[in-house]
Amino acid sequence: MADHPDAREMRERYSRVTGGATVPLVDAPVFLAGLYLAVSAWLVPTFIAAQPRLGIHNLILGIAVAVLALGFALVPERMHGMGLALCVIGAWSIVAIWTVGSGASGGIILSQIIVGGVIFLLGLAATGAALAMRRKRHTHSERMTT
């Protein structure tokens, strides 16, 4: 593809269509937050012994968050609506302490609240970036038609 005679033009067009912006400042932190959520049960002392169901829950949600981060990095133009999914996962991670688990200790609660809050805020950032990309694309397409 790099040898294609129109490669430069296609890159420039892609940059114009996406507004030249992706969500680069969100990709890595979302991925790291997802990895932490996935392994938090094994990092926080007594977590897995005291809350095995919450540990499995975190593993599944952490993998989902990491996959979303990879999607943001690889195909940002198709992930514009998934920032809201991160917000829901972040909020659910906080609520899960009391719905999936029961009688969690202070360290487990603190870990869940922090990682859930971080994921929620990163979801808001991803949503904001996606809306900005959409506005730029819409503005650009209006200029092209006039």
TrEMBL record:
Keywords, comma-separated and alphabetical: Membrane, Transmembrane, Transmembrane helix
Stretches that traverse the bilayer: 21-44, 56-75, 82-101, 107-133
Q: Does the keyword Transmembrane apply?
A: yes
Q: Which domain of life is it from?
A: Bacteria
**SPW repeat-containing integral membrane domain location:** 27-124
Q: What's the protein called, per UniProt? A: Membrane protein
Q: Which organism is it from?
A: Streptomyces xiamenensis
